[in-house]
Amino acid sequence: MNALGGEGRRPPGEVSVLVADDHPMWRDAVAKDLADAGFRVVGTADDGPSAVNRTRATRPDVLVLDLNLPGMPGHEVCAALQRAGLTTRVLILSASAEQRDVLEAVKAGATGYLVKSASREEFLEAVAGAAAGEAVFTAGLAGLVLGEFRRMAAEPPREDHPAPQLTPRELEVLKLVATGMGYKEIAAELFISHRTVQNHVQNTLGKLQLHNRIELVRFAIAQGLDSD
Known about the structure:
Blueprint: E1 2-4, E2 16-20, H1 24-36, E3 40-45, H2 48-58, E4 62-65, H3 74-83, E5 89-94, H4 99-108, E6 112-115, H5 120-131, E7 135-137, H6 141-153, H7 168-177, H8 183-190, H9 194-208, H10 213-222
Parallel strand pairs: 2-3, 2-4, 4-5, 5-6, 6-7
Antiparallel strand pairs: 1-7
Helix pairs in contact: 2-3, 3-4, 4-6, 6-10, 7-9, 8-9
């Protein structure tokens, strides 16, 4: 499993999770694994509209979301939550590792993607990582996402507002974010603390009006910062 950074993990008991899957046995098993590991399971959903409504009602830290839900597919659930301005991190848990499914979900706002063949330990690790703001992916998928962002960056630019001025240190951190480095790796590279890296990233997100690390990586690559 690959993770692109994060903001410091909390104990499972401080992390609330909602599980959305249309297969009752799988959904109940996932919820039980989470509860047994100490996470606070605040509810479950068996279709897309329910996933949106219950996420809006309970505002969990993490939504564990299947892609193929009745009524509204997973990527549309992600988009609806983005439009609602929720801070819930969406971790896709899907049987599919198809490139199209992965990229569609990430572009719609998912912050992680795990295939259902993952072990229980990998899954629980992914939930903890997602709650901490890490972009968590099944091994190999992180490179796929970064590659797609680089491909998109090569396309003709769209008219947009100029980016706000970043400090030299914020720009330095952003360049390393664009390479896929995690917070601890960036801290070691720049000889600063993990917390300082986190603060720079949060300040940059605010200035750029972005919501999460995936969007920040995409912005940085679009600006060509990964090749500077």
